[in-house]
């Protein structure tokens, strides 16, 4: 894991085509600007985890309901 300090207006690059810039820092929060190609998905981690959990719950559904549809 890389830990790096940046001030307002400073950036870092991921590869050649993703740039993350610190836009604002105040009261314990940091506002970031992310410039990346459109084909790169950008999700907040808590949203990603929520989607992952929903998918697990959907996959674990009772398949007996599907068996009734065949009849």
Structural summary, described in words:
The chain has one domain. The chain has a three-stranded antiparallel sheet, with no helix packed on it. The protein is built from two helices and three strands; from the N terminus they run E-E-E-H-H. The protein starts with 10 loop residues before the first strand and ends with a helix. A hairpin with a 2-residue loop joins strand 2 (18-26) and strand 3 (29-35). Helix content is 31%, strand content 28%. The radius of gyration is 20 Å and the shape is elongated. It has 71 residues and is of the alpha+beta class.
Q: Which stretches are poorly predicted, pLDDT < 50 over at least 5 residues?
A: none
Q: From the helix content, strand content and strand pairing, which structural class follows?
A: alpha+beta
What is the count of distinct domains?
1
Q: Please outline the major beta sheet.
A: 3 strands, antiparallel
Topology, number of strands: 3
Question: Portion of residues in helices?
Answer: 25-40%
User: What is the strand content?
Assistant: 25-35%
Treating each run of at least 4 consecutive H or I residues as one helix, how many helices? Answer: 2
Rg calculated over all Cα atoms? 20 Å
Output mean pLDDT: 89
Question: What is the terminal-to-terminal distance?
Answer: 54 Å
- Which outline best applies? elongated
Order of strands, widest sheet: 1-2-3
What is the chain-wise order of helices and strands?
Answer: EEEHH
């Amino acid at each position: 894991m890389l830990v790096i300090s940046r001030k307002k207006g400073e950036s870092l690059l991921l590869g050649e085509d993703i740039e993350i810039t610190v836009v604002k820092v105040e009261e314990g929060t940091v506002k970031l600007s992310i410039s990346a190609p459109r084909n790169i998905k950008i999700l907040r981690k808590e949203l990603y985890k929520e989607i992952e959990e929903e998918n697990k719950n959907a996959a674990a559904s009772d398949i007996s309901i599907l068996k009734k549809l065949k009849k």
